[in-house]
Amino acid sequence: MFKLGLIINPFAGIGGRVGLKGSDGEHIREKALKMGAQKLASVKTAITLECLLENKDLFEIVTCSGEMGGDLCKQLKLTHQLIYKPQVPSTEIDTRKALECMLDTGVDLVLFAGGDGTARDIFEVCEEQQMVLGIPAGVKIHSGVYAISPEAAGMLVNQIIQGKLLSLLSADVVDIDEKAFRQGLVKAKKHGYLNVPGALEYIQAVKSGGVEVEELVLDDIAAEVIESMDDDFYYVIGSGTTCAVIMQHLGLENTLLGSDILYQEKLVKADAVESDILSMLNEGKKLKFILTIIGGQGHILGRGNHQLSPEVITKAGWSHFEVIATKSKLETLKGRPLLVDTGNSELDHSLWGIKKVITGYRDYVIYSVGMEKKNS
């Protein structure tokens, strides 16, 4: 089941209607409340969550108690788990601590309501690969991590839950100096980037035959994988023609129906078996694995790569497995999830969720891993 993290900054936007240009700082919040300001972050989050009600059986929410999420989930009768109890009133420290607890549960998406200050707090704690999405509720919304509206956030999350093909974008986290802003000066600072889902964009460079375009896309995928290789890691290049292109770009012989191990772009073990991989892991070597879709049903594990056994996957860690595929190949699945069949059902279930798929050079999508739903 899709696991959705939810964090609401209940004070986000509280200074807007009373002209305070933001809500950072306890004294500003107190001043805003005395001036008659109302808390609107939960109202805006409700708009987002109401968009999800039709699919409420497809996800569960992991959130905080009280105004930071629990109260709203209870009001909307959404299945939820409380993993953090904030202080009252909550502060930015609670946002950060809540996210730390949330990440430990393995959430697929962190949905948060706030403004640029909240986005900055999320960034400070967030893991590099974690997918997030902001519900715009603050006074300052300069960061690119926010949907254009609460309704848009709901529509986007719905598409993710339903397994629709979406891009994975790198969005800026930007915040401005509120003190300077109140004096009419805009001093913006970029703090970094977060991964956010986005509507899938197709860019058609040339009108040509499918084979020629497919070859260009495979070249782009290979270039992305090779450029991203870390000299500290060994790379296990999986079976299949898509993975074979990586080896071709490196000028190396490859095992089409097996796995080859590279280190610093050199072949160190051809056609590696389970014992070879386990031996390296037990020696403390760091390994990453490149997988692609094998077979006609969307399998990424359990078809043609049995050497990647449950023990290998557990020891290496699922985060060290990267999936590569062309968008056209993903589209042939018609929304069906990527499949894993390791021979260990408990492990298979733990791998279900959202996975980043490399689909070109600096081009990624998010796609679901799980069990195909059967029509009744």
Mean pLDDT score, rounded? 84
Helix/strand-derived class?
Answer: alpha/beta
Q: What is the rounded Rg?
A: 23 Å
CATH topology of the largest domain: Rossmann fold
Distance between the termini: 19 Å
CATH class of the largest domain: Alpha Beta
How many individual domains?
Answer: 2
H and E order: EHHEHEHEHEHEHEHEHEEHEEHEHEHEE
CATH architecture of the largest domain: 3-Layer(aba) Sandwich
% residues in beta strands: 15-25%
What count of helical segments does DSSP give? 13
Q: Helicity, in percent? A: 25-40%
Main β-sheet, in a few words?
A: 9 strands, mixed
> What general form does the structure show?
elongated
Low-confidence stretches: 15-22, 200-212
Question: What is the number of beta strands?
Answer: 16
Strand order of the largest sheet: 7-6-16-15-13-11-8-9-10
Describe the structure.
The chain is of the alpha/beta class and 376 residues long. It folds into two domains: 2-198, Rossmann fold, CATH 3.40.50; 210-369, no CATH class. Helix content is 32%, strand content 25%. It has 13 helices and 16 strands. It has helices spanning 26-34, 41-50, 70-75, 92-104, 116-125, 150-161, 178-182, 210-227, 241-249, 274-282, 310-316, 327-331, 345-351; strands at residues 2-8, 59-64, 80-84, 109-114, 132-136, 166-176, 188-198, 234-237, 260-263, 266-269, 287-292, 299-301, 321-324, 339-340, 353-360, 363-369. The strands form three sheets. Strands 7-6-16-15-13-11-8-9-10 form a nine-stranded mixed sheet, with helices on both faces. A five-stranded parallel sheet has the order 3-2-1-4-5, with helices on both faces. A two-stranded parallel sheet has the order 12-14. β4 (109-114), α5 (116-125) and β5 (132-136) form a beta-alpha-beta unit. The relative contact order is 0.10. Mean pLDDT is 84; it is low at 15-22 and 200-212.
